[in-house]
């Protein structure tokens, strides 16, 4: 397994786990079954394929079908246009690249092969399940606080989490949890990010939001303004 991360780009290759689907001499090998990445990042999904005869005229990835039952090429899908790139080589390997990921991109991606044989095409079923998640800070405790950088799925690639207090970095660890034993003021704020994706950090969690008396004050102010 290797992980390459630059800025807000997350590129994942997981060649150790493959899914091979073969029908006759047709076959698609996906590099992984599932990937979990951050919203706003970039992901790569790869596969390789075999075919019995003829010449391959078209290959593409898709997530949905049109009314006649044919799959929609992701590069033609309005939801992905200008965010999708394809990369292939002469060894029948194909890579899908999606940039500026959105949570709505969370779905199953499948690969389609079309040949010059009339009516002959093949879809690699099962596909790759992509889950796109954001970061969210959760807190427990009172004087000594345990903060957790939450995601909706375990991030691919064993990321390093970075913690900030009042905008300043205070910790860096492979654990998504951080314990702050230092007394906190009501004005203190916390956020987290993943190393290599510091620009995709979580929303700031203010101390006031988990201080009961302060929270009552905030609610009173909101009530007066409404």
From TrEMBL:
InterPro entries cross-referenced by the UniProt entry? Ig-like_dom, Ig-like_dom_sf, Ig-like_fold, Ig_CD22, Ig_sub
Q: Coding gene? A: TIMD4
Where would I find the Ig-like domain in this sequence? 141-194
Q: What's the protein name?
A: Ig-like domain-containing protein
**Can the keyword Signal be found in this entry's annotation?**
yes
Q: Which SMART domains match?
A: IG
User: Per UniProt, which keywords does this protein have?
Assistant: Signal
Q: Does the keyword Signal apply?
A: yes
First and last residue of the signal peptide: 1-24
